[in-house]
Amino acid sequence: QSALTQPPSASGSPGQSVTISCTGTSSDVGGYNYVSWYQQHPGKAPKLMIYEVSKRPSGVPDRFSGSKSGNTASLTVSGLQAEDEADYYCSSYAGSNNLGVFGTGTKVTVL
Amino acid sequence: EVQLVESGGGLVQPGGSLRLSCSASGFTFSSYAMHWVRQAPGKGLEYVSAISSNGGSTYYADSVKGRFTISRDNSKNTLYLQMSSLRAEDTAVYYCVKGSSSTILRYNWFDPWGQGTLVTVSS
Hints:
heterodimer, A: mainly beta, 6-stranded mixed beta sheet, 9 strands, 41% strand, B: mainly beta, 4-stranded antiparallel beta sheet, 10 strands, 0% helix
């Protein structure tokens, strides 16, 4: 199973919005409404930010939102803040024979 | 508070073995599937293995199949990963992760993650 495709980098100024794409196939992203997003600061463990395409766990700011269209999922961070600078990874269900496919990762820089 | 604490990482020679442990607290361990995810230095996340809540179902990525064995002891709230025939490409931080479901046969999101333990395979 190939990794999901994400842009290597994205950036925005404080207060702006940035959107990260996650492209898969009809066997993963496009086949299920089961996409999650993880934030990872340098030297730290990943943290769940979005699950089931657009649901936010408690404690995650509503500046973070998720969506999906066809084989591409997206994470949007609105009102960028300095602490949002991190790596972001998507993940999708791909069936019971292929668990936990991750994206290639996107480094978000707050200018 | 849910906590996952990994241990057992270290330096091992190619072809060697190592057992990782993950001690869980703050939730009913026996009710949730558990997973191992690794991250090579400077690289992205790679899914390694999963085990259902009762240990009856397991899953391995092709890259570790036949070399790694996942297990759990629900009486000790502990998850294990026995790694053998280790290769240089197994060098990574290994994260223990709690799944959102008892089964591995359907979608799980991963939350929370442990702090990770570093495995270095080198002569």
